[in-house]
Here is the input.
Amino acid sequence: MGFSIGDIDLDKLLEEVKGLFSKQKSFVQPSTVQTPTSINEPPTESGAYKTPIHGSWHNLGGFDLGMKRYDGRTGHQGVDMSAPAGTPVYALTTGVVNKVGTDTLGGNIVGVQHSGGIWSYYAHLASARVHDGDKVDSNTIIGTVGNTGNAGNPKDPLKTQEGGRTWPHCHFGIKQNGAWVDPSKFFSIPAYDPTFAKNPGKYQKFWLSDDAKQEAEAFNMREHTSKRRAAFTRDVGKLVKLANQFYKLVSD
Here is the structure.
C-alpha cells in the first residue's frame, strides 16, 4: 500500500513520473542529451560541500577500512575531527535529517540524507540541535563536538566529560550509494599529527567555554527526541528515497 500526504499517493506519483520520462526519452534527439556531472566527483570545499567544523580542528584518525581497532574491530569509516567540546558541528550540505539518537559506539549521533545518494554521519556529539525531518544546509548547526559513546567514559558513555578514552572530537563519516567513502573526496583534511594525538591537552583545551560545558552536561537525548517537532511528513525516510529515485531519473 502506498503512503500518502493528504490526497497525494507518492508511490503512484513515482510510477507516473517514470512513465513521463520514458516517453520523453523517445522524443529526445541524441545531440541534445547532456551527460550529467558524475556524483563520484563531488564539488570542492568552496562548492556545495563544506567542512562540518568551520573553524580549526585536528585530525585524530583518518579513513582506513583496513585499520585494526583497539577492540578487535577492523576499519575506521570516517575521520575524527578534534576540537574543544561544545564546538558547533554543521551539516555537510543541504539535506534532511533522518537519524537522531544514541548508540553504544557513536554515543549521541545525527545522520543527514543528501541528494545524489550521499548520507553524512556525525558521532560522539555532546549535544544534538536538530530533529528527524529537519531540513538543513551547511550553515545549520546539527550538534556540538563531544566524546560520547565508546570515545567517552565507560561509566557514563553518553556524557561529555574529562576522563574519557579519547579527547573530544566528531567522528564524521559519509556513505555514497550505501558504501562508506573517504571524506577527503568532499573537503580537505589535515594530516594526522601523532604529537597532538599523544598529548592533545597541550595544544587544545577540553571545553570551548563554560556555556558549552553547561549545555553538554544538561543535554539528554531522550528528552531531546521526545520534543521532536512535527516534520512535513512522518514518512520522511520514504520521501527522501523518493527524492533520490527522482534524482536518478532526471540524471539518466
In short: Residues 1-7, 23-47 have pLDDT under 50 and may be disordered. Helices lie at 10-25, 194-198, 210-218, 221-226, 236-251.
